[in-house]
Design brief:
Elements: H1 2-28, H2 60-66, H3 81-94, H4 96-99, H5 123-126, H6 130-139, H7 155-168
Helix pairs in contact: 3-7
Length: about 170
């Protein structure tokens, strides 16, 4: 019986020593304990008011979406080599996975689609108005697999991609 009480006392002593060491270590840390840190509550400080002109009230995607295709014109020079080069980079970042590196609709991802993505060098695509291409890239094509990329690709980059696609010419 004395051995059990001795063993029990030894275990309790070791546990108390371990707790004391952990507590001393925690209090010597430069960061506070979890239960001692201040809580952060939402709206403790007043919400700042936006400066005038921060939130657009006209223009933007709404204007682009509702402008007729023929009236939707690129703000970029579509024949400028720098825009075409930037469009090529954008194409291989956002479009080549489906349309392929040869622009024929045989991209790695596009091969799983039925029907295949369109050939960007076809007469149909090359004869499209730039505004139509812009809307198809931006807002998708209903009933087809073209995703809406307006939230993924900035407006100038979309126009650059169109400049690159148009620079390819017909197959």
């Amino acid at each position: 019986m004395k051995q059990v009480i001795g063993l029990f006392s030894f275990v309790v002593l070791v546990l108390l020593a371990a707790y004391g060491l952990i507590t001393a270590y925690d209090y010597s840390l430069s960061v506070g304990r979890m239960w001692e840190t201040p809580a952060i509550r939402p709206h403790e400080q007043p919400i700042p008011v936006n400066a005038i002109g921060i939130v657009p009230v006209d223009g933007g995607e709404v204007r682009l979406r509702h402008t007729p295709d023929r009236e939707l014109l690129s703000p970029l020079d579509m024949d400028d080599a720098t825009h075409i080069a930037a469009g090529k980079k954008g194409y291989f970042t956002y479009c080549a996975q489906c349309h392929g590196k040869y622009h024929d609709g045989n991209g790695t991802v596009g091969q799983s689609f039925a029907p295949l993505p369109g050939d960007l060098r076809s007469e149909k695509v090359q004869s499209m108005v730039n505004g139509t291409l812009f809307k198809e890239i931006s807002y998708g094509v209903p009933g087809e697999r073209q995703p809406a990329l307006a939230t993924t690709i900035a407006v100038p980059e979309r126009w650059q991609i169109i400049a690159y696609v148009k620079s390819l010419g017909e197959r």
